[in-house]
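## Example record

The block below lists the input lines for one assembly entry, exactly as stored, with component labels intact.
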Amino acid sequence: MTTKLPSDLEIARQAQLWPLADVAQRAGLPAESLIPYGRHAAKVDLDVLEGEPQRPPAKMIVVTAVTPTPLGEGKTTTAVGLAQGMAHIGQQAMLTLRQPSMGPTFGVKGGAAGGGYSQIVPMEMLNLHLTGDFHAVTAAHNLLAAMLDAHLFHGNALGLDPDNISWRRVLDINDRALRNVVIGLGPKEDGVTRQTGFDITAASEIMVILSLCSSLADLRTRLGRIVVGFTYGGEPVTAEQLGAAGAMTAILRDAIQPNLMQTLEHTPALIHAGPFGNIATGNSSVLADLVASRFSDYVITEAGFGADMGAERFFNVKCRVSGLIPAAAVLVVTVRALKAHSGRHRVAPGKALPAEMLEENPDDVRAGADNLRKHIEIVRGFGVSPVVAINVFPTDHESELEAVREIAEAAGARVARSTHVVHGGAGAAELARAVVAACEESSEFRPTYALDDSLASKLEKVATQVYGADSIELSAQAKKDLKRFEELGYGRLPVVIAKTHLSISSDPKLRGAPTGWTLPVREVRAAVGAGYVYAICGDMRTMPGLGATPAAQQIDLDEHGEIQGLF
Amino acid sequence: MTTKLPSDLEIARQAQLWPLADVAQRAGLPAESLIPYGRHAAKVDLDVLEGEPQRPPAKMIVVTAVTPTPLGEGKTTTAVGLAQGMAHIGQQAMLTLRQPSMGPTFGVKGGAAGGGYSQIVPMEMLNLHLTGDFHAVTAAHNLLAAMLDAHLFHGNALGLDPDNISWRRVLDINDRALRNVVIGLGPKEDGVTRQTGFDITAASEIMVILSLCSSLADLRTRLGRIVVGFTYGGEPVTAEQLGAAGAMTAILRDAIQPNLMQTLEHTPALIHAGPFGNIATGNSSVLADLVASRFSDYVITEAGFGADMGAERFFNVKCRVSGLIPAAAVLVVTVRALKAHSGRHRVAPGKALPAEMLEENPDDVRAGADNLRKHIEIVRGFGVSPVVAINVFPTDHESELEAVREIAEAAGARVARSTHVVHGGAGAAELARAVVAACEESSEFRPTYALDDSLASKLEKVATQVYGADSIELSAQAKKDLKRFEELGYGRLPVVIAKTHLSISSDPKLRGAPTGWTLPVREVRAAVGAGYVYAICGDMRTMPGLGATPAAQQIDLDEHGEIQGLF
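Predicted structure tokens for the full assembly:
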């Protein structure tokens, strides 16, 4: 446990990558389906989805977590490690992961390529442009914005109310100064003056559309359905009405194809889309899941944040679109997360753990156990088998790791330690065996609500049955919003609850498994193109900022032209 | 001359593309230097520039034009046609062209892929993302802007004067509403409030840097040298001081490699960079020229607008960096351009030619002859042989075409008709032969000025010796700017004169070859990273707008998922 690990970048640099055709072969993907982008990534032609499948669909495994600390609990590394671990026990698996956002790479970086000996490589490609999908989302999003403002400028024939426009602009960057802007200043020919702002590209509705669409035709339909604002009379105005949807589809025609990369152990990974985990679905794409499930025995996908967040939307939103039935859920837990849930410690983003948290203290772990128990219950609530994966850190103590195991076993869950960061796939073999066993159980997957339920009822069911709230409290505005959305025909859409990921409740300060609380819904918005309605329950940041010494200042090329300081 | 031509898109669709490895072989490029991006484009590894060249450098041919009408005179089609024509006469040639900007593709589109049977294919790839270089420029540019605003927000240790910041943001889009904006509104944590704006990506200084840098190390140096604004004390503040240059280089590490594509006749073409032709150099990249000249017998490159604009900068700025000596210049002329220079007709952008301009009228052609004569003289002024290429339109009359030939021959220039749009390379065979003959002449290339000349003297020499102005008139501001730049050590930089491209003078209404005029210099700016000083002589638009019915409204996918309506 005291191995001194080389840095992620050093490990990644030493990797001998396989030709992608060999990686594809391992995934069962036909070589001719690969469209190369650079030497180490390829797009997969969606033609592979045509015709009758030659085999039963893969077993679908979602990797989720307990409520994380601001440092994250290693969900991506566990997903990568597990996929590598499957090969160690003779099973064939494929990963489907979100593409990391480039903005945070230059801010405070969490590292979205995995870590240690469980990484996607080349990591600098993954964390910068990859094949340009995020750029395409940015371009399509901003084309719609430009066409909207041009429509206002050229006479506003649709009668769009400038004070009721929800479509902003996006950039894949951390730039606080763009959160609130006034555009169209200067002489009259420089456009109509109005207030608006920029979000980070990952927060674009188009990013969610990219993640949820099931074909090029479906992409076209969803883009056309985007509501950019309302007329003076309260009627929605769509991208279709602005004549933008066709051109937006043309911009996204390549982006819709998932990107094939590999792990350090040459496990095939489809990297695709990267919607925000707080206001959006926080899951990789339906198309990547469909491709992977057609060719592999096991598909391992990661959902953002805790099981109350990304996994809930995986089950209630994404699986409804893909039609894929989850076979098991991996619940990543760390000693430090349960210690934090004891309420006895404070963990801050971008800072090292307080020294006292590293001392041996299984009591702290047990004091935070409620959070793990609640997440096990959340997963079970969907009729899915939970497998608790203890992501082992070098600083963990044996007594603490055992405490976690006892808590999980007492709750009736399968449990396994995983040392994939230090040992790669070999360190995840125990976890892989537990997952395979869980997948053998008969699944009785059940979403939390039916689409026929009213929007308010859907919100209430998620709040009470998933989060454990007593009830929801709709503000006057929220009630008005819901009524209007039902009238506009959005009533059959699924819901997303935009709340903090640092608590199962909507209060980031509440640790463990909060009870006796009410979910306050401030307002409700509709992502009609993506196909969901989302309730705002807290302050959601959709454009990060840069700190006083952003990570970008450490990034440069070395004398060989290789990127250094990326992580 | 009455052939009914299929549309550009139809012709492009019917093309049977060669595998890029075969195209590379034709260019003499080693197969292992190709890094594929999609099925029909590849980046060329800059390793090909290492080691001793195996052959003498190619003969360098720049394709320029008379002063164009707002419709353009077919410079790109001529460059493509000529390159194809070289093969028809048994010569080996390679093209180096700018990448078209995506913004105008969705506005009013001029078609930057060539046209008819002289096109770069696949045209939809060329006109949309290609390999993402423009996106990389956008990302690098805006990262610097975000780091600048973060610096202001976190205490402004460098003492940057918020009222003296010249670094704006960019997007590859036509969006007039972004020309003038106020950012940093809202609560204090949302940044420092200040006025700024967005330019189109092609107008970014980083795009010029991409076009002028000669290696990755040179790119890094130039990025660090970018001046974003000045301190309260008047000292320049650079990207290096903000700690941004390394990260920007990382973002641009792949973009620096030229992109290999092919013409309809499989002629190799390097597509790279796309700086604006009015405020910037308007030429494709030095690196593309260096790669092409190392492997080909002839390199054909296009420079923006007329010979007073792009070609002047090709000679005075780009060739100084690349060290390549131009062997000949092709001067594209059309019957319609000379008719327009008669002053008897008006041609408006985005509109069809007035009917009376299509009537047979060689007198109108002769009345506009001064413009052609002046451009021949401009080319000769650089010691380069001009070849006049008459780009034949189906609506031209024999007497008019003969009139053009007589004017060119009377001026002592080689001249050839070219019907490459209708007949592909075969239609440019006469032109190709004339170009080969011109290249056999001994070249006495001489730039207009020496770098040791003062900035004012450089501006004056270009204005008088190239444009034919009597003198220049510096405003008080311009004098102040020049003095300050000399003090700051920018005095040895070459100059760019930002003026209209619709006249050889700075007044867009003056046709032909204006005489007896003075060039008014309103202000002078420095692009220190790119490495030139530019004089503002007129209103330069750096962010286009969308019309009432933008081209985007016609673009969509057909039932096979193919893009339609792109042109």
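The domain at 8-129+258-439 of chain B is CATH 3.40.50.300 (Rossmann fold). The first strand of chain B starts at residue 34 and ends at 36.
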